[in-house]
Amino acid sequence: MKQPKIVILTGAGISAESGLATFRDNNGLWEDHQIEDVATPQAFLRDPELVYRFYNARRAQLQRADVQPNAAHKSIAELQQRLGDNVTIITQNVDNLHERGGSHNVLHMHGTLLSYRCLSSHQQVYYTAPYDSNTRCHCCDPGSKVRPDIVWFGETPKYMQTIMTALSQADMFIAIGTSGQVYPAAGFVEIARDSNVHSVEINLQSAANKDLFDETWQGPASETVPAFFNTFLKTLS
Ligand SMILES: [Zn+2]
To answer: Which residues pair with 111 in a beta bridge?
Structure first.
């Protein structure tokens, strides 16, 4: 039997059970700032040290021992092991829990916490330590300043061409733990529909665009995602 091509999109909901805090206090603020006001190119121009500090804190949290991939990340890795390059994994998350769960070639459309981007060469470099305006890259001589390797509000997500091609050629599109509110990811289901790709939503709470999906599985990702893939893999054998 022909191996199906599967495109998986994951959002914050898949990492919610992995011990990551939201970085919002009771007022929904971080150090008296709206997170949306820290994650912009304008904020980086206005107050770079604030922006570095925010991402340094998030990077440090991600590396805490109690933050671990959960059963949902692992079951996606198992599917990828089984179907290889026929599985495309796209994530809106900036954590590395897919990789730690065993997945590879993950398309981090919003960038990653565990890297910096050189402001001169735009190279993305794996980097786990804190960094700020004194940090210099190793790709230029003399070294240049670096910025968080995060796609901020108002910037264009990465890998869009690869993603569009994968979506148009897929047999199935599965959105896991995404709100369906952040574009362009929220529009992927419409691209899938236009190419007659079967679409599945797996979510704790239904996405804003739930009516666009052919199939919906509701529940915590760590239970629902393995249950879905176990059922799906039986249809292949
Ligand atoms: Zn450089």
So the answer is: 150
Peptide bond into 41 cis (omega under 30): no
Q: Work out how many domains the chain is built from and give that number.
A: 2
* Ligand 1 (single-atom ion) residues, CB below 5 Å: 118, 120-121, 137, 139-140, 144
Find the 112 Cα to ligand 1 centroid distance in Å: 18
Choose, from 33, 104, 110, 122, the residue flagged as catalytic.
110
Residue pLDDT, tens place only, 40-99: 999 999 999 999 999 999 999 999 999 999 999 999 999 999 999 999 999 999 999 999
- 110 in catalytic set: yes
The answer on pLDDT for 1 being more than 70 is: no
CATH assignment at residue 53: 3.30.1600.10
Residue 48: exposed, middle, or buried by beta-carbon count in 10 A (0-12, 13-18, 19+)? Answer: middle
